[in-house]
Amino acid sequence: MLNRGNLVLNNFLNPMRILFEQKSMPIDPWSEEQINFFLQTLSNMDTDKDDKASRVGEREARIASRLHLLTSSGFCHGVGRSGFLTAPQPKAPGGSIMYEISNYLARDFLRKFGLPNIQKAIVIPLCTGMSLALCLGALKPDWNEEKFLRKRKVLVPQVDHKSLLKALDLMGIRSKIIKGKIFDDAVRIPIEDIIKNYDDDCFAVLSVTSFFPPREHDDIKEISKFAKDKNLVHIVINAYGVQSPEWMKLIRAGIDAGRVDAVIQSTDKNILTPIGGAVIASPREEIITQISQAYAGRASATPIVNFLISMLSLGVKGYERMLLEQQQNRKLLEEKLQTLAQKLDERILKIFNPVAVAMSLNNLKKEQLTALGGALYNLRVTGPRVYNSREKAFGTCCEDYSQPYIVMNAAIGAQSKDILLAIERLEKAYSQIRKK
Question: Is 119 a catalytic residue?
Answer without folding.
Answer: no
